[in-house]
Amino acid sequence: MALVFVQFRCTPGKTYEVANAIWDLEVVSELYSTSGEWDLIAKVYIPEDQDIGQYLASKLFIVPHVSQTLTTMTFKAF
After folding, report:
1. What is the topology classification, in CATH, of domain 2-73?
2. One Pfam family from the UniProt entry (predicted)?
């Protein structure tokens, strides 16, 4: 499995609605609200046989009221 972190910037006033919609999709393993530029951050495990971009686009980036996302891919360091 590949592990990615996805940060979300939400339409003002819609962060809780977006968070609930993301959680209801059952795609993320963890979801947090954050301070700073981004409103939410999610930890997502991508199945080995899936294209990461297509998986995220079809399973996660369908949530309304998201104005921008930032995906950070991870690599084994140790």
Report:
1. Alpha-Beta Plaits (3.30.70)
2. AsnC_trans_reg
Nearest to 8 by CA among 17, 26, 53, 46: 17
Residue spans per domain, the chain: 2-73
> Which sign, positive or negative, has the C-alpha torsion 45, 24, 35, 15?
positive
How far apart CA 31 and CA 7 sit, in angstroms, is 10
Structure tokens given for 3: 């592990």
Radius of gyration (C-alpha) of the chain in whole angstroms? 12
Question: Structure pTM?
Answer: 0.93
pLDDT band at 76 (very low <50, low <70, confident <90, very high): confident
Residues 15-53 pLDDT 10s = 999 999 999 999 999 999 999 999 999 999 999 999 999
